Task: structure prediction
Amino acid sequence: RDWSYEWCYSDIISETIRKAMASEDIFKVQSGPASRGDQKIITQHLLFLKQQPEYQQVYRILSESISEKKK
Result:
C-alpha cells in the first residue's frame, strides 16, 4: 500500500468535517468536482482509483449523492 497520500487525505477530511459542523447547511459548504458537476475530474479520479475498486465504488456513490443533492 502506498501511504504517501494518506497525510493529505487526513487534512482534507478534517477540514471538510470542520466546515460541515460549523455550517447550518452542509450542502452549501461542499466543494469539489461532484459539487461543481465537473465530470472530467470525477472520471480522472475514478481512473486513478482503478486499482482500488472498493475506494472507486465509495467515490462513485458519494459523487453521485452529492450531484443529486445539488440539483
